[in-house]
Amino acid sequence: MKLSKLFLPIFLLLTVFLSSSCFDILEEITINRDGSGNIVFKVDMGELAGFMEGLAEGGEEEIDMGELDGMFEDEEMVMGLESMAGIHNVKNLSDKETYIFGFSCDFDEVEDLNNLLGESNFLGAIFEGEAGGDVDPDKARKLTLKGKKLTLSGDYKVDTEMEGEDEMQQAMMMQILGEANYKTVYHFEQDVKKVKKNERAIVGADGKSVVIEASLAELMQGDADLNGQIKLR
C-alpha cells in the first residue's frame, strides 16, 4: 500500500471544509551528523472543531462525528510507517480533543526520510482530495546530505485545477488557502553557517535550526520555493 493512501481520511476531511475553516501544517525534521534523525508531522485543525461540532448539533449537515473521531485513533497509519525500511519508533500524535492529526518517527538515514516524504505526497493529496498516487521521481521532494551541506530539492507546486468553480469561488478559496500555513523546521546538532538559494529560509534563534514557510495558496500557485542549501559548521 502506498503511504499516501493512509492519509486519505485527513485529506478528504480538509478538502470538504476548506471553504469554512483554516488549518496549519507543521513539519519538524531533525538531522544528526550521521544522517539519522526524526520527523514530526502535524496538521492542526483546531479551528475546524467548533465549526464541525456546531453543524453536527444543529443538524445543518449530516456529519458523523463518530467516524471523524475514529480517524484520530486509526492505527493503520502507524503500521504503514512501521513497515517502511529504515523507519522506527513510530508514534501516533493524533488527538481528537485538540483536532491535531500527526505522527512522529525516527529514520536511519536521509534516504529513508526521502522515501517517506516522496510516497506521502501530502500537498497533492490535500488539494486533489485524494491520495496523491505515484510521485514523479524528477519532481519528488528530496534531501541530500553531503558532509556539512544539506540540499533541499523538489517541486512543491500542486498541479490541480478548480474545475467547475466560478471566479468568485476560486478567489474565496485562494483567500482561505492564503491563511493556511505550511511550515518546515530543520534542526541540527551543529550550528548553521549559512543558508543559500532561498530568501524565505531563516536561521532560528538557537543557531542550530532553519525555518522555511509559505501559505498553501502560494504552494498551489507555484509561487513558493521551499528548496535551498543549508551549510553547517
What secondary-structure arrangement, pairings included, does this model have?
Layout: H1 3-6, H2 8-17, E1 24-31, E2 37-44, H3 46-58, H4 65-73, H5 76-82, E3 87-92, E4 100-107, H6 110-120, H7 122-128, E5 142-146, E6 149-153, H8 167-178, E7 181-188, E8 192-196, E9 202-203, E10 209-215, H9 216-221, E11 228-232
Parallel strand pairs: 1-7
Antiparallel strand pairs: 1-2, 2-4, 3-4, 5-6, 6-11, 7-10, 8-11, 9-10
Helix pairs in contact: 2-7
Walkthrough of the structure:
The protein has 233 residues and is of the alpha+beta class. The protein has nine helices and eleven strands. The strands form two sheets. A seven-stranded mixed sheet has the order 3-4-2-1-7-10-9. A hairpin with a 7-residue loop joins strand 3 and strand 4. The protein starts with a helix and ends with a strand. The N terminus is likely disordered.
Question: Short description, anyone?
Answer:
With 233 residues, this protein is an alpha+beta fold. It is 34% helix and 29% strand.
Beta fraction:
25-35%
Unreliable spans are 1-6, 124-133
Helix content: 25-40%
Rounded radius of gyration (Å): 18 Å
Q: What class do helices, strands and sheet pairing give?
A: alpha+beta
Shape: globular
Distance between the termini: 40 Å
* Quaternary structure of the protein: single chain
Q: Biggest sheet: strands, sense, closure?
A: 7 strands, mixed
What is the overall pLDDT average?
A: 75
How many β-strand runs?
A: 11
Count helical runs.
9
N-to-C order of helices and strands: HHEEHHHEEHHEEHEEEEHE
Widest β-sheet, arrangement of strands: 3-4-2-1-7-10-9
